[in-house]
Amino acid sequence: MKKIEAIIRPAKVGDVCAALAKICSPGIMITEIEGHGRQCGIKQEFRGKTYKTELLSKAKLEIIVNDGDLDKTVKAIREAAFTGKVGDGKIFIYPVDNAIRISTDEKGEAAV
Ligand SMILES: Nc1ncnc2c1ncn2[C@@H]1O[C@H](COP(=O)(O)OP(=O)(O)OP(=O)(O)O)[C@@H](O)[C@H]1O
Ligand SMILES: [Mg+2]
User: Fold this and answer.
1) Which domain holds residue 15?
2) Are the C-beta atoms of residues 36 and 64 closer than 8 Å to each other?
3) Rounded Cα–Cα distance for residues 66 and 109 (Å)
């Protein structure tokens, strides 16, 4: 099992959720966050003026998938979140030791 943590543009949450629904992704957690990447939160221009904000709004999606579903899930997220500009976000992948479905006590991949 793997945990996919995708930091994306808030405006792309709908598209990414629709793409995940198409591949029947098992579940999702969504959090509004603030952060910065390599540009250190520099927002280039708005109505002709340059503004600097240290933190920009992003959405954090967390999805736990079985190993066999990892590649297609990452592909679906990346394609739906893509604009080709800086600030599109990042996808981090972590190993998951175990999962427990509370209602049934199923463990591991069966619980996901
Ligand atoms: N190395 C990192 N560690 C933790 N969070 C990160 C890291 N890189 C990016 N993030 C998170 O992802 C969000 C979006 O990052 P962003 O897409 O701007 O990354 P980037 O490294 O600047 O790449 P790009 O040049 O494509 O913009 C950031 O606001 C931050 O929350
Ligand atoms: Mg950036």
Assistant:
1) 2-111
2) no
3) 6
Please name the residue whose Cα sits nearest to atom 1 of ligand 1: 37
CATH of the domain at 41: 3.30.70.120
The alpha carbon of 85 and the centre of ligand 2 are apart by a number of angstroms equal to 9
Pairing mode of beta strands 100-101, 89-95? unpaired
Q: How far is the CA of 24 from the centre of ligand 1 (A)?
A: 27
Percentage of residues of the chain with pLDDT beyond 90: 83
Question: How many domains in the chain?
Answer: 1
* C-alpha of residue 56 to centroid of ligand 2, in Å: 10
pLDDT 10s digits, 57-82: 999 999 999 999 999 999 999 999 99
pTM above 0.85, yes or no: yes
